[in-house]
Amino acid sequence: MEALSLGDIRAEGLPVGSLQSFWVRTHANQHGYCHIVLEVNAQEKEDELLSWRQREVKVYGKGQLLFVGVVTGAGVKTVSGHKIMSIDLLSLSRKMDVKKKSRTFQALDKTLGDVAREIAIPYHVDVLIENDVVISRMLYQHDETDWEFLRRLCESMGLMLFCDSSSSMIRLSLGFVPFRHYECAGRIRSHGSHVSYFEVQRRRENTRKKSRVDEFADTKLSTYDLLPGAGYGLMLAEREQAVLGSQIRVNGDFLDNELLVRHREGLCATAAVQKNRWHKPCYIPGEVIAVQGQQVKMKFECDDKQDEGKARWIAHENTVNNYMYSMPDVGDKAFAYFEESGELVVLGSHRGGLDGNTDYQNPENRSLTSENQMIQFQPESTVCIAGRDGEQSSRIVGDTSAGIDIISSEDILIQTPQKLTLQAKEEKADDKAVKLMPGFNRGYNAYTGAGGVPLEQRYSLLKAAELGVDTVSMNQLSPMLEPVAASSAAKSLDACTKGR
Fold first, then answer.
1. Which parts of the sequence belong to the Baseplate hub protein gp44/GpP-like second domain (predicted)?
2. Could you tell me the CA-to-CA distances from 298 to 138, 232, 284, 478 in Å, in that order?
3. Mind listing the pLDDT tens digit for each residue in 262-275?
4. Which of 113, 255, 366, 456 could form a disulfide with 377 if both were Cys (CB 3.0 to 4.6 A apart)?
């Protein structure tokens, strides 16, 4: 590209005027910036000039697109009778840096590209990925704009984020995928190099053990070619290097482009930035949408919707003691402890609503629950329930005053290889102690009313093997044989048949 002067620059989308100053700056992890100063018609009203905010502006140099951005600031002043307007522009990527939001990315098999493309959908961004790695840890965008979160995500992975400031649409490069390739041999001027040995040492000790000093050497060059900017590839000494940053400004009669160039192997976040939020804790509230053993799936409050298929199983560690857990139910509110490093655990929960469930109506009752099972400690009793919901359930209640109650919708099996002894208090049981269901005591009452002897000793089965085999002990424990009293009908029948 040939050398250009201020007279060769044209801004499309701004008031008509004479260009007084022009400056462009681009750099990795930053929006492109452009500052323009125009002398406009003195008859222009200030309120109209200041109404150009958020307008999209394209800057050309002899027909070549140099910068595309949005007006983010404007000022008007009068100097010696001339009305001067200054305009600040930021690259189109600024549209991603307006609204702060919170959300999670839970899928275990998501990649860097999956996350970037999901973020890019509302802005129609062209996303370039150097290495589309799998990110198994959960990601949390916490009150950040999409640009802030995407930049932080790249930094946490040791990558740099580039935006193409000379594109008519938003183009982002995660890592280094050159927007364009340039070969400027013979038209560049070198202004020296610089390297931070301290930063290289910090990388070796914290993030990249095999870092070499020459990878992080920054070289300053200048050229009249105004096209290369941050994120562009530049061929130098038969090797493509990366443009880390650029500045276009007036140098004498012409515009000069100062480039900051680095080997592509050295394009990574500093050690301090990469680990900046690695272990910073935060708590994310949400609702339990599934329970499995000692794990839960969560729909966090910051997520508008959550696909249960993509939600991850998170360990629930609300410990009562070393080996007892109180598990929440579906619909309960819960709180997850999260660190950027991948630490994620649900530490507590509370009942979101009873929904007709009487298990939690009395605050004095303490409950331990796990999926569909529960142990409840009441002031005067302990309740063990298997199958809280549904038709199949079993319940054992131990009450200090009423004794033990066993209720089951299925069979009750008592099995032992040794003795099974059922023993009551050692005293004779009278008729009042025998509590039969209503209607079932009529026969016994008729028996005792006719002079029958009440039972003085209850049966006791010592061994299951005695049934049907040895009746000696059972006979010994049975009541004495009573004489049979013949009825009137029997006596009449005996009289009729007497002598036969």
1. 103-164
2. 12, 42, 10, 65
3. 888 888 888 778 88
4. 366
